[in-house]
Amino acid sequence: MDPATVAAVLDPDDKSKLINVAKSVVKVSFPPPNRGREYLDRWYTGIIIRWDVHNKTAMIISGGCFDRDIDDKSKSKIFVHYPYMEDDGFIEAKLLFFSAFYQLSLLEVAFQGVLLDVPTQIPTFGSTQPKCGDEVFSLGRDKDLSLVVRHGTIMKEGCLIELRQGYLFLDYELPEGGTGGPAVDHQGDVVGLVMDCDDDRAIILPISVVLSCFHM
């Protein structure tokens, strides 16, 4: 297991709550333009926000998943990897909405095959507003679908432009592929989405802002 993940989750109660959230955390891969699934060397993290068990469909929010210079993003391929499937948990996603301002994607997937586990309950979203001084965990998936966790504090300092856009800054870096993963508080509630920042720090976008982008 990733040593930083072990160090981030020391309290058994926190571990139990994060495991519940992790059942909704997926890996989201996106090949370069005009390339197929054999070129999936780039990925983000995503989280399931709606789950239809009967029809095996899910709605997922993640990072932008696109090069900024792509004009027609509807033609770009995005693949979701779900770790709780009998096969490789790999399926192409449908882009429902893209926020260019916040670089967020809303995806839909229809799972095929046997699901070994499903989220019994989607994590609580937007019950609390993150603020400076709060401690949060960020959850992500690595290239092998293993869960990676980081833990830290929301800081007061940050670039004025990002602060005006609603972002908050964290005092740690994200692991590779961590962009788009959930920020979770000690109650096990999802309070935001985390993203990489240019100065090697992570930023968090409050979940209320994220959901408002998709009118939810």
From TrEMBL:
UniProt cross-references to SUPFAM superfamilies, sorted A to Z: Trypsin-like serine proteases (SSF50494)
Species, as recorded: Panicum virgatum (Blackwell switchgrass)
InterPro entries cross-referenced by the UniProt entry: Peptidase_S1_PA (IPR009003), Peptidase_S1_PA_chymotrypsin (IPR043504)
Protein name per Swiss-Prot or TrEMBL: Uncharacterized protein
Cited Pfam families: Trypsin_2
